[in-house]
Amino acid sequence: MKPLLQDKLRDCVLTGVIRQCDDCYPGSLPPTGPVYRGSRRRRIDFGLSHCQWPALSVESLAGPSDHLVVAYTFDSKAPLLRRGPRRRSLLPASSPESLEAQGEAWDDSAFQDACQGGDVDRAWQLLSDWAEDLLCEPDPAAVPRSAHWMPVTPSARSTGKRPERSAGLRALLKLLSRLQMGMHRPFDAPLWNRTVKSLAHVRRLVPDMPSIRQTDAASVAQVEALVDTYVEQERTAAKQAWKRTTRDSLAASRAYVKAKADQILAWDKEAAETLAPTSGRHPAVEVDKQAQVWIKKWRSQCSSSSPDTQVDGILSQVVLHCSGSRKGGTRPISVLPVIWRAGARLLNKQLQAWTASWRAHYDSGGVAGTSIDTALQQLAKELQAGASVAVQQDVSSFLDSLEHRTTARILRQFRAATTLVTLFENYCGRSSRIFSMQGALSSEWVQPERGLPQGCPLSPVIAAAVSHCWAAYVLGQEDPLSAKVTGHAYVDDRCLLLRPGLSCCHLRAAVTRSNEFDLAFKLSVSLPKCAVVAKADDLEAQTLAAHLGYQHLPSLEVLGVIVPFDRPWGLLRFSLDKVRMRLRLMRGLHLRLRSSRQLIRSLVVPAMAWAAPYAAPEAKDIDAVKAEILFLCSHQVGKEAARAIFFEVAGWFLEPQFAIDVATLRAMWRVVVRPPEWSDILPLSAGPLSPLTVVPRLTPTLESLGWWMSADCRVLCRRDRLGIERHVHIGFESFRTIVQWLRYAYRARYVAKTGRVWQHKDRGPDAACGLLCPTPSRAADYEFGGHKLVFQEAGADRNLTLAAFGAGCTNWFFNSKGNFESGHATHKCLCGQLHPSRPHLVWSCTHTASLRQGIALPTDRAAERLFARQVPQQPPAPVALDLDGFLEELTEELLPLLTHSKLFVATDGSSKQDVGAIGYALHTTGTTLAVGDSLEDQTPFRMELKAVHLLLRAMCDAVRQSATQSVNCHQLWIVIDCEAVIRAVQGCQGFDYLLLLEQVRHSRRVLGELGIKADFVWTPSHGKKPLWAPPAGLDGAYLRTLNEAADAAAGRCMERRRHLSARAQWHRERQQAVEWEVQALRTVAKVASAYQGYLKTLGHGPREDLFSVVVASAHHGYLQTLGHGPRDDFLSRLLPWLSGLCGSASALLRLCYDAFDSGSLLAATALAVVALRAQFLVGFVLYYFLVFFNVVLASSRLA
């Protein structure tokens, strides 16, 4: 347990100003508070120390009080922590344009000369110094980032010269110190002279400094007061600047939340013992000790008698691949120069062709084309096939143990470019490192003889080559399908899986080969982390584990997931505490909902959904995170906001289970449209790889949604509310369609759990209720479109924001912190009934009838209480008849046009109200065709892409059918007004429409093989860009005319299909629902404002009237000045009259609501507000008037 620090202390600890003494203990310390119900609950006794004086050990002892006594051990003789050099601070962010302009003005001749001469160090120095001048503030005392530096022991700093203080405050502190010293040394004339000489300098910095005539207590008190004022002002300014930064910059907020949450929870991790020294030694001493440990570990173990022949034997059996990963453990992480990291990233991209030449199915990370998914998918397939025994290994300090010479031999064996091998050898031979631990630096730079720097973008690629060697040697080069042992290596994580029905002797042989490899490459495994994984009653596995000295475990722990053989997979290191801490830290930032939403999606959702296709947190953890998210946003949306509306307006990705399901379905989509490379080893008889076999969580996800996949896993299916079977063709439509389906499912779930819609709570016969409408149908659907629009337009209108989420506008909401008595008038409605609810105030109260004029009354409880109208789910697209016949017709129209040497065809896609069509203009404006299809996705982009696809197919068919006649055409120009389609076809990427794009690219290649080159020419639509000119040799006017003809044909076809379609009717109903919801929600906000204004006239908390309190307190003060005898003066007769006058004014305000009829409610409200302000003014004037007379009377009484 760690103590809960106050915010100011926590900030000081996290910024390194002070230390927590408890940090010397890496585990969980016992609570120290008093015993409560049989046990101690909190650790409220702890110590803080100077940043240069860390505690070494801690003990909790019984003492004389009911608290435990905490004792710490310090080393007073330990040296100070060494620090790095002072650096120039960054300037405020500049625009890219200004930086580019300054960059163009730089004279880079010296830099170019250094590069041409091969002097990389000089080139780096010039480039670094120029970048530092460009991005940093001037600081003559700072050490340039390009210069070599050595760690130094910091010197003691004067108390008043902290850099975060202003010059004026530092001058005041120095003056205060001299004055305080002068009070104790009145005889010290030189001290007084120095003080007098400094006054002019201080007054220039602090104009409001008082006159100092002597060193007395009064002067000290004046300067102390001024110091306190300046300190508070600077603290407030710094805090406001920090809040402004975190509010305006999502990057700053994200960095703050991540860093602070990690620091707070760092010592609570289970593996904390391995992340810091536990010997109790001082960091300044321990860092040197750790440096020696790592220097010894990085010392090369190869000699002239090294078993290079064995290494050569292993290399000769290499086929392909690599992998890498790191588990907990004390090891240094390299922080490399930014130019090295940037250059290494560019080099990585250029190495993709090289890594593809040796990549194999058992490679699972570190190089392009592989990932953790690669290993987990193969593992899932093997387990589904019946595998039940595995061996997991963990290589101790894998990256830090790789021999430079041996690794270079591997790169050469894989035929890496000579420049890459030379770069690797030069870096390994010339790199130097320095150690840092808990703020302390080691004494000198060291040069390692082995190991790859962690943090370098090239290290995963090089480590992957070594891991590939291990896999090739251990698993062998036999047919992967007939191999008896399969597996993978991901940096230091290794897994060997025994195929079903085989003996463990094959696993033992594989482990023996793995040990031979480790001996040759000077690697070693960490035995406590190695295990034979099998069922507890597997005797053969128990024997193997005992023989190897490994553990025998029932679950495989690999790549961040737990893989049991008989249960769903789970996350290995999901930290609910970290997620909670991040969400709670967001509360302190007071972010807007839009900013909170982005932070949650970047800091919380990935922690839960990174492995969603394979494993997810437990249900109770998901619910806990959801509760934290709702609580975080409750200060903006109201605590009683309907969850269905909250997630619909704020975004369904804030719902953790929704985000997990989306990630699972996205993995399914990815497997179908882009099968993993390892699937090439599967036999053709197995057919396409099914995502149901390699995505473990896909089946339960589909079952919970009531969805299913087709037999070939190419189509996702569901049944809508009307019983119609709906389909999405994976790779031919957008993934957004599936996300929309998922929104339908989750929206229905949450509406079904919204109690206010389905349940009526009887609050008593006197409670003010709404219309008590009937419950809606369980099959009803809602869009909440009006709620989204109202939230976007709400701005600073608090009542309108709350209305958009179904919150606010209730008696309970406005009186929640008032602590009113049960009979108080604030519990009444405008119409006099008790405890009015939101439906009563909006739909039933007679005094708000004028505000709801022109709005149709609700007909069910969803409209009455959620202000939402039913909108059915989107119906299917209009049916398309004989698409194959249209393709034949298009082919026939193209046949006679093949006589032209250059053929121009304009294509266009049109869509309105989710009904689309495609159109063509074939070489002339007089030949046009158009058609539509019936897929769910009817977006304009897919229509444009589909048009290109059908055209290329028809062209290929036309060329084949014209074998008996001459074909003069050698160039097809596709005239299109959609640049996105051109970029998509000409590129090599894709996700949503990848399979459709592949068909387009394939048809284009086939047409080229048939002798016709197909090119795109972009043409602006609808007369846009009048100065546009086409490529040389083409007529711009002709292209525009052709494009307009295709657009008109597509538009006419779209209108025919849309007219009287179900989707057009659905859009009309949806628009009507949105209009009603917007009108209703605006009314809710107006009613809330009116009721809130009325309640303000009834008092503030349990007090009857603010002005009566003001008068009573003034009266009490006056009576204290007059004694306890009879009072008959003017004021004693005046005060009761004033008190009665104020009480009458308050009563008059209450009566104004009853005096006006309901039609004049707004006027009555405005009058009440004016009277209320006047009452405030009169009350405070009377108060100060009475105080003045109290002082006068008291003075006269004393006289």
Automatic annotation (TrEMBL):
SUPFAM superfamilies: DNA/RNA polymerases (SSF56672), Ribonuclease H-like (SSF53098). Residues 327-552 form the Reverse transcriptase domain. The chain crosses the membrane at residues 1160-1186. The keyword Membrane applies. GO terms for molecular function: nucleic acid binding. Keywords: Membrane, Transmembrane, Transmembrane helix. It comes from the Eukaryota. InterPro entries: DNA/RNA_pol_sf, RNaseH-like_sf, RNaseH_sf, RT_dom. The keyword Membrane applies. This is Reverse transcriptase domain-containing protein. It comes from Symbiodinium microadriaticum.
